[in-house]
Each structure stands twice: as C-alpha cells, then as structure tokens.
Amino acid sequence: MIVDCHGHYTTAPQALWDWRRQQVAGKDPDPLRVSDDEIRASLEANQLRLQRERGSDVTFFSPRAGSMEHHVGDARTSADWSRVCNDLIHRACALYPRNFVPVCQLPQSPGVPPKQCVWELARCVEELGFVGCNLNPDPSGGHWKEPPLTDRWWYPLYEKMVELDVPAMVHVSSSCNPAFHFTGAHYINADTTAFMQFLTSDLFKDFPTLKFVIPHGGGAVPYHWGRYRGLAQDMKRPPLAELLLGNVFFDTCVYHQPGIDLLLKVIPVENILFASEMVGAVRGVDPETGHYYDDTRRYIDGSTLGAADKQKIFEGNARRVYSRWR
Amino acid sequence: MIVDCHGHYTTAPQALWDWRRQQVAGKDPDPLRVSDDEIRASLEANQLRLQRERGSDVTFFSPRAGSMEHHVGDARTSADWSRVCNDLIHRACALYPRNFVPVCQLPQSPGVPPKQCVWELARCVEELGFVGCNLNPDPSGGHWKEPPLTDRWWYPLYEKMVELDVPAMVHVSSSCNPAFHFTGAHYINADTTAFMQFLTSDLFKDFPTLKFVIPHGGGAVPYHWGRYRGLAQDMKRPPLAELLLGNVFFDTCVYHQPGIDLLLKVIPVENILFASEMVGAVRGVDPETGHYYDDTRRYIDGSTLGAADKQKIFEGNARRVYSRWR
C-alpha cells in the first residue's frame, strides 16, 4: 500500500473560495453549499485520477495550506474558516474513505494563544476521525512574530496532541511579506526554521511522544545535514538521532531524483514518509524526465533502496506516526 | 591554486570587538588600536594555519558576517562600523597579500536607501583594492522589512557594482528574531529567499553583468532544484540556466560529502565556487569522518568530478566572478 501523507484540497469547489471571499469582505456568509457531486467531481478529475495514474492508494488530506491565511482577520475569522474547511475535508474523506484520510487546519491567529486551537483539534479528531493537523509556526504570514515552536506558548496544544496521539505537520500558509515567495521561499524556510528550533531545545524531553512531520523534504535540512550535526555538536547538544529523530519526520516532497537520493542517503529510513503534495506547488512536467515533477513515487521507486525500506517509507512509517489511522 | 571565496575575520583581535561594544553603548570610541603583530597572531593561529593544513592558497576575506549587525543603531553607526571593519580587513590582506584578498562589508541600515552604500563600496574597491562585497538582503536582522533584492530600491548600488565590476555575496548578519537561529536558520533561509527573488524577476535583463554569489551552497536551492525548475516553468519564466545562471553562483559551504555531491550533480560546474567559511559557523570534527566539517576541500577532492572541473571550482570560476582579482 502506498500512503501519501501530504495532500491539500487545492481543487475544492468554487463555492468554498466564494465563501471565503465573502468572509474576508466582512459579510457574514451563508452556510457553505456544496453538493456531494461537486466534491466528487473536484476529486475525480484531480487527486483520484492522479492516485490511479501514479499508483498511490491513500492520501492524508487537509485544507489548502496557502488558504489557511491565519493572518487574515482575527481569531473568530480563523475559527469560522477552519471549521468550514475541516468540515469539507470530512465530507470529502467520507465520500472516499479508502482514498482520503482527514487532517485538519488549526484556527490559529497571530498573537492568540495556541490553546485556542485545542477545541477544533479535539472536535476534528474525536468527533470526525481526523488523524493529524497542520501547525503553522508563523501565523503572521511571513513576519515571524510568534515565539519559536519550542516555547511554552505552544504547550497547551502539544498536551492535546499527545493526549489524542496525533502528529502535526509543520506548514506555513501564504506569505504577505514581499521578501518571501510563498511556495518557493516561505514554505522551505519554515521547514528549515522549525528544525533548527527543535535542535536548540529540550522540547522532546517535555513531550517524549510528540511528533512533527517537516514537509518539503525537511526544507534545507538534509542537504545541510553535516551543518546541523556540527551545530548540535558545537552547542554540546546530543547527536541528532538521540535529540530529535524519535519525534521529527520528513516527507518526500522533493521534486527531482538527486534530491530524493540525498534525503534517502542521510536521513534514517524510519524518519521518512512518502508524500507528493499533489495537486500542489509544482504542476508541470519535467522536460528532463517526461514525468510530472511532483510524481515523487517515481523517485522512490528509482532509488537504490531495498523493498523493506521502501515499504517503510510508503506505508509503515505513516502507520507509526499517524497512529490513529487504521 | 585553491581559492576559498568565503572567509570572515571571525578571529579579529579583541580590540575590534571592544571598539564595537563602546560604539553600541553610545560612547564615541577612540580610533581602533591594533598592532600588525596582533593581526598576524590572530591569522597565523587560525586561518593561515588552516590554509596550510588543508591546502588552500588564498581566501577572499571579509568582516565577520554575524557582526555586521546592520539593525543596530542608525546609518551613521553602520557607516562608522563598516569603515573600521573594512580598514582592518585591508590591513590584514596587506600583511598577507598572497593569502588574503579583501571583500567589504556595506554600511547598510534598515530603511536607508542602498545608494548610501555606494561611497564605502567605491572607497574599498578603488582606493583599497577590494574585489567584492557582502550584501545583506535583510538589514533588519530577521524581520525582513526591506524590498526584495530585485526591487529598484537596490538599483543605485547595483549600478556601482556593475561599474566597478565587483560581485556581491548575499549574506545576512545575526538574527534578532527569536524564531531564527542565525547560522542554522537565518543564513540558510536568506540564501533560499534571495534565489527565489531572482527567479521571479527580470533583474538580470536590467543588469546583464551583475553577479551574485549565494553562499552556504545556495541554501535549500540545489536540494530542491526540481522544485525551482518546476516553479519557473509554471510561472512561464525562462529555464533557470537562461534566467539567472549567467549571474548567480553558489559556494561550496556544505559540510558533508552527500550535500556536496548533490550540489555538483545538479548545478553546472561553471556556477560553483569553492569556499569553506572557515573559521565560521561549524568548528568541530565530524565523528563520521574524523575531519573538520568545514574542511570542504575534502568533499570536492572526494567527488567524482574530473580535474578540469575541479580546477574551475577551485580557481577558474573565482577568477571569472571576482574579475578584479589578479
């Protein structure tokens, strides 16, 4: 079985984006009206078709990351928008329970304590069967005003994650800072930033069972694995394996063979989860290969890894990290 | 000959740091008093010893990046501090003209137009023989308030760089944003950010001969080279080679063999300049190899590249990019 742990509902029906537009304009939108057929059409033409074409079986499915926009409006705006998005994810996954497993957006808002997200997380996990969440380390959208992820500021949310036994994927949203292109800089920077925050802290002493997935292949981290091993060493931190590899995992959203080969070479196979983020940041066909850049299964298949290791990446590790998923 | 294009005077005599402490405290420091012998001692015990031990011949040498601290004080603070630092670099390089070639710090200050840096750049290059500069894309120190490097805001500085025929290394300084560890996140993020800024702009149509070196192996860029090729393609930009590889170069400050192997595999050899950033961010010995993490010559030597390509990386490309250096 092939589990893609990183998919967003980028193709949601237009009514969702219309609802959001009304909300941002300050109107009180009517309840979202989307038919089951519209949901089916949006998935059949896109994610389901690609699952079939590329040979993946199930996608952990969350609201579009770039649209979380935690920086827009206030905590109420974010709570309402998160609920609408998560409910739609729930419906999509209920229509195709063999193909999609729900992961939720959190109702974060800049400067608002993360414990305000606990209720929506609990609702999604306990009532609706979600298996994980996306946690935005920078709800300001590129201004980075929140304390590091290792600050006690975040602890109430972590307590709930641990209690519910769900991991968080560290995932920023769109950037309203003109310095940072969102999918080309902000996403990748956030991955790198979060890893370094974890490296410098004792967070996982406080929460030994807390689990994070760093997407986009871990940002810059595997490419600079020697730098991070060396920085930890200079700071008299424990070796990275001991310090954080029981808690921090990387996905395979790296869109060329040499990048995946590096990831597989330097990061222990137990810490790598298959993912493509389709339909996502990069949608074209690589002229060098004739295949879609984000058809990441080809890169894993094309690697020199043995079958048992591939199985861990494709399925086993996802079952371990997203342990509520059966 | 082996040219290390990225070295900072991290080991400068204590008097320099005392001068700075006085300046930041609002005292008007006396002129810096450092003897030639103190400079010699600071280099003989460190960079010169390591050049000999590791077999490099010459280092392009600039003030300590983390101490540029453009966010401290105002434009006058930065101008005075830059002048003191650059003059000390000039003296160090004059004492060892075969070993060190001067590269300057720019007197940037948040919100101050970059054309204010033109005079110090011209002084360093025309009067003191400097061959390049370090350009900070985020003089705010981790708050990223400046326009992207591709904005016309920066053009007066670029006009002078082109006129003088000097490249800039894109290099941030320390971070005063608690989200960003400076050498573990801010440096690497800045590299990635700058590349993406270049990718989305037509800067190099306006300045066909402008040259930037992106340090630390290009941040996350080579690891995500497929992503960047795909993003450019989705945006209907030209292929990266055509769009920016005539103007953008990467150094080899990547501190493990798999990272260097990736860099050499995906980036054209003409765009890679040898560098170690010693004595810098990572100072320990890698227990996996028994050698210093930042002894990057070993990784180039250990690669499968042919002799002619290694010569380009070790010397030829540096002569082309830093064309004032004879």
Structure in a nutshell:
With 326 residues, the first copy, chain A, is α/β, with parallel strands linked by helices.
Largest interface: A-B, 58 and 57 residues
Radius of gyration of chain A: 19 Å
Number of strands of chain A: 10
Question: Main β-sheet of chain A: number of strands, strand sense, barrel status?
Answer: 8 strands, parallel
The N- to C-terminal Cα distance of chain A equals 13 Å
Strand content of chain A: 5-15%
The strand order across the widest sheet of chain A is 1-2-3-4-5-6-7-8
Order of helices and strands of chain A: EHHHEHEHEHEHHEHHEHEEEHH
Mean pLDDT over the residues of chain A: 98
Characterize the quaternary organization of these chains. Answer: homodimer
Q: What level of helicity do the residues of chain A show?
A: 40-55%
**Broad structural category of chain A:** alpha/beta
How many DSSP helices of chain A? 13
Uncertain regions spanning at least 5 consecutive residues of chain A: none
Shape of chain A: globular
Description:
- Two copies of one chain form a homodimer.
- By secondary structure, chain A is of the alpha/beta class.
- Chain A has 13 helices and ten strands.
- In chain A, strands 1-2-3-4-5-6-7-8 form an eight-stranded parallel beta sheet. In chain A, strands 9-10 form a two-stranded antiparallel ribbon.
- In chain A, helix 5 packs parallel to helix 6.
- The first copy, chain A, starts with a strand and ends in a 5-residue tail after the last helix.
- At the A-B interface, helix 7, helix 9 and helix 11 of A face helix 7, helix 9 and helix 11 of B.
